[in-house]
Amino acid sequence: MRQRHALIPTLRETPSDAEAASHQLLLRAGFIRQLAAGIYTYLPLGRKVLRKLEAIVREEMDYTQAQEILMPAMQPAELWHESGRHSVYGPELIRFQDRNSREFTLGPTHEEVVTSLIRDEINSYRKLPVIVYQIQSKFRDERRPRFGLLRGREFVMKDAYSFDTSWEGVDQAYQAMYSAYHRIFDRCGLKFRAVEADAGAIGGEGGTHEFVALTDIGEDTIVTCESCGYAANLERAESRMPANGLDPLNRLDLLDIEKIATPHMKTIDQLVHFLNVSADQLIKTLIYIADGQPVAVCVRGDHDVNETKLKNYLNADSLELADADTIARATGAPSGYIGPVQLSIALYVDQEAARMDSAITGANLTGFHLRHVRPGRDFTLEHTADLRNVEEGDLCIHCESSLKLTRGIEIGHIFKLGTKYSEPLKASFVDAEGKDQPMLMGCYGIGISRLLSAVVEQSHDAFGIVWPFSIAPFHVHIVPVSVQDTTQMQLAESLYAQLGQLGADVLLDDREERPGVKLKDADLIGIPIRIVVGKKAGEGLIEWKERGEAEVLVLTSEEAIELITLKLRGAVN
Fold it and tell me: What average pLDDT does the segment 497-519 reach?
């Protein structure tokens, strides 16, 4: 590609509404442009990176014997009604009607469509197992699109689906995808972890792992143990409870509840300072609406409710914090003064709050709290479970070492679905004994457009993007200092032609621009190898610089071609 007429509109200033580094750099370097909130056009450079990411994904999917298909993005809503997800998926599902008033959705995922497809095409165990996949645009009506491609309303995704006759087959497909994902993300040059995760809106009956690119901007928190290798998403992570528990002889059991005045003290921090206590001596009570019904949840004052654990424990389809009016109606008191004693709604208690000898809680009365509240004596522990977020320094549930919290971007997710979709959609097969059996499924997703941003988040510096060789839009950026210099342009054109014949992607900067502008643009775009053709062109010499490295080498054009040949072989192998 010659840069003179290439659509690479670089920006000198950082757009004011771009928060994440990847969003800023992809805009500034001319890879993407925003059409609406969470909706982007991929310019030529961005599309080239997407195609290289897609090529890696296709190679690894094909290696697992998965077969590529392409399903419609526009899906009949009746399929979602059949699976039961139409009412529970939430407002992220884009719903609309056609001119005949038939309901449709824009697919955020394709479990229903692919299950109906395989149901209609396969009915015998002899044709199973089978894995199909697609690479396609998906749609989610995000409440708050942000961070560019990291949380968009339209995005490119690879989704694969396996269909088997047994759980052993599901396990084999799952392991094949687990290994393929490691190869894909390694080839993309990412630092990542595979962690235990929650199934979320996809659901399922078996295990699930999330693949997370490690970066501070990530909206996911992962919990890891460096000693035993345990890793889980914060939504799923567990920790070991401290060994000490209730002392049956503790004389605090004899202390009566004491009501104390706490005017205008609604938050944990306010109470800590007002009462001169630590947060772990308090119990905070939060009110949620679970499937339309108010419930109360108690955790220790220094802990936070894990809403995913709570939702799973309640087996609820929907869960949200109650508003002020709902809290007042359900408890008779305002937020900030709610406590578990004599509460009339269902009460759920985190296991560590349940183990406290004595606690300070809300009194369910404006301006008052209670002291010497003892779990089990003063309020019921009928519903006790692990309902809190793991915190930095908690003990690993497997080896008791300290846990570490890290931020990251979800880039892939794999699930064992079992019969979650095959049973309601009646996808069955006839087994060897002539009996109908529901197919057992798995699904496996990779956010390909998200990968583009995740790589940039991990691989950039103060000057711009630093693309890994495997997915860079071009391998080599040839920059002649002066396009008016015949000798420089002859050498640049010669290199351009020879490298193209080798199969290298080459960008030739043939613009009539100042050298400083060209070099700044080269750093911003981030092509792995920069060859500057300057004053020594008459001697057949060029300046070689690898993006992200400080060293500049003076090489002959032949040496440069040889080095690039070796890099291309490495990229292929």
Answer: 95
Instruction: Give yes or no for residue 255 having a pLDDT over 90.
Output: no
CA angle at 402 for the pair 397 and 404, rounded to the nearest 5°: 100
CA 516, 521, 524: angle at the middle one, nearest 5?
125
* Dist CA 81 CA 425 (whole Å): 10
Q: What is the tens place of the pLDDT at every residue in 37-84?
A: 999 999 999 999 999 999 999 999 999 999 999 999 999 999 999 999
Mapped to the 3 state alphabet, what secondary structure does 93-141 carry? CEEEECCCCCEEEECCCCHHHHHHHHHHHCCEHHHCCEEEEEEEEEECC
Give residue 319's pLDDT: 92
Confidence of residue 247 (pLDDT cuts 50, 70, 90): low
DSSP string, 308-329: HHHHHHHT-S-EEE--HHHHHH
Between 301 and 206, the higher pLDDT residue? 301
d(Cα 378, Cα 78) in Å, to the nearest integer? Answer: 50
3-class secondary structure, 506: strand
Query: Degrees (nearest 5) of the Cα angle 136, 139, 144?
Result: 140
3-state secondary structure of 57: helix
Tell me how far apart the alpha carbons of residues 201 and 221 are, in angstroms, rounded to a whole number. Answer: 18
C-alpha distance from residue 406 to each of 124, 160, 232, 401, 458 (Å): 46, 28, 11, 16, 14
> For the packed helices 448-458 and 21-28, what is the interaxial angle rounded to 10 degrees?
100
Peptide bond into 294 cis (omega under 30): no
Average pLDDT, the chain: 93
- 336: tokens are 């900030």
Phi, psi of 410 (to 5 degrees): -70, 125
Asked if residues 452 and 148 have their Cβ atoms less than 8 Å apart, the reply is no
Q: Sheet of 103-106: strands edge to edge?
A: 74-76, 103-106, 94-97
- Structure tokens that stand for 23 in this block: 């969003």
What band does 253 get if pLDDT is binned at 50, 70 and 90? low
> CA 167, CA 438: separation in Å to the nearest integer?
12
Q: pLDDT of 546-562, one tens digit each?
A: 999 999 999 999 999 99
With a CB cutoff of 8 Å and minimum separation 6, the contacts of 121 are none
Beta bridge partners of 554: 543
Do the strands 67-68 and 130-139 form a parallel or antiparallel pair, or are they unpaired? parallel
pLDDT at 552: 95
Give the C-alpha separation, 34 to 53, whole Å: 21
Beta bridge partners of 476: 506, 529
pTM of the model: 0.88
Angle 547-550-556 from CA coordinates, rounded to 5°:
75
Asked if 145 and 38 count as a contact pair (C-beta separation under 8 A), the reply is: yes
Using CA atoms, how far residue 142 sits from 137, 272, 289, in Å, is: 15, 37, 21
